[in-house]
Amino acid sequence: MPLSFDEALDAILQQADGRTTETEQVAIERALGRALGAPVRSGVALPPWDNAGMDGYAVRRADVMGATRDAPRVLPVLGMSAAGADATTLPWVQQGTALRIMTGAPMPPGADAVLRIEDTDQGIEQVAVFDDRDANGRGNVRPRGEDVAAGSDLFAGGTTIGASHLGVLASIGAHTVPVHRAPRVTIVSSGDELVMLDRFDEVEAGQRIVSSTSYALPAMLRTAGADVRTLPLVPDTLDALTGALVGALDDGCDLLITTGGVSVGAHDYTRDALAALGGRQTFWRARIRPGGPIGTGTVRDVPWLGLPGNPVSTMVTGSLFAWPLIRRLGGHAGYRPLRLPVRFLDHADTPAPLTYFLRVILSAGADGMPEARLAGPQGSNLLRTMALANALLMIPPEVSRADAGMIFTAVLLPDVPLMTT
To answer: Are 370 and 240 members of one domain?
Structure first.
């Protein structure tokens, strides 16, 4: 019995149970996009001292309360605190005095507020204060430890390290961090009709077609954090495919992905090849379109994921199933693509009782709700439409026609940034 989309996704993600890659220590320059293998704790406070939130004058609040342009408070200026100044050498701000201070500079002892330079006459030896509003509240002071308290946990294990994480890690002196090793993924593709670009003359002669997914699928899986190896194209014979799988497994991988040969055609040998190697198949086929001929299981204790061979079907199922599985194998706490409600603006027939995934382009509606338009024709051989899309629109099995104005769920394509002009 074919599984529903969510049943298939859960079954595939279960392949990662107990198989998360081990942790290794790497320099932070190499940690971008990896998942933390353990929590990171800060041994320092950020900021390390109370500092000024803007250029102005450090003062005692009580000395400037009630200051107006008609009745300014005039204070002698003791000197200056610049960014990078040694806080231990700054003069004490006594009653009735001020210290010139720059944004980010340490607060001098005795002062508890920073007045904006715009609310003064910008004096050097003495300053006239015309407004006391910054003497209230926090007084433009950034307290020590406001961002990070010393001894606190910064990021939990499983956190995906982004550019800002690297900045924080550098700020606390973390030269290296524990991260999960990138999952090793081997892709085996079969099809007598397929060639790589070095044989494009056969394509021009009308004899073969380019194996587009040999270029597209590895690229997408690398965005999930995979260390991808693609084997040479395999002829459509049982012996050739079995031999290729043996070679892939002997070289070692955390996930074996096959494309093509998973359906019921006369030259579809993937399931037979897996059976010949003692493989176990968890399920085969899902009630989705495109991508129904999909399967998963294990072979020689290595998770296997079988994707269909049509270019769009490969990329859709790669996004929906392979990408989340690789993220989970790589220790990422977040691994399911984001789903959100959107308003459909086009029309599409979805007559079979399946979950359809339409390639769409999302944009913001006038009321702020995301809206979806078809990216183009929806045939499973039309890869350009996949390239134009930034999301997949889920049409549930009970809907036979999707009309404009209907609300559906969109699955954001995990490797496509949502940008606008």
So the answer is: no
pLDDT digits (tens, 9 = 90+) for 78-109: 999 999 899 899 999 999 999 999 999 999 99
Distance of alpha carbon 418 from alpha carbon 78, whole angstroms: 52
Q: Do 108 and 131 fall within a single domain?
A: yes
308 and 266 assigned to the same domain: yes
Per DSSP, the three-state class of 170 is: helix
Nearest by Cα to 145 from 134, 157, 154, 137: 154
Are residues 237 and 157 part of one domain? no
**The domain spanning residue 271 has which CATH number?**
3.40.980.10
For residues 91 and 82, what is the distance between their CA atoms, to the nearest angstrom?
13
* pLDDT tens, residue by residue, 295-325: 999 999 999 999 998 999 999 999 999 999 9
Encoded tokens for 417 = 């940034």
Q: Which residues of the chain have pLDDT under 70?
A: 261-267
Length of the chain equals 421
pTM, two decimal places: 0.89
Angstrom distance (rounded) from CA 327 to CA 29: 20
Residue type, 330: G
- Cis amide bond preceding 414, omega within 30: no
Of 272, 398, 269, 404, the C-alpha closest to 343 is 404
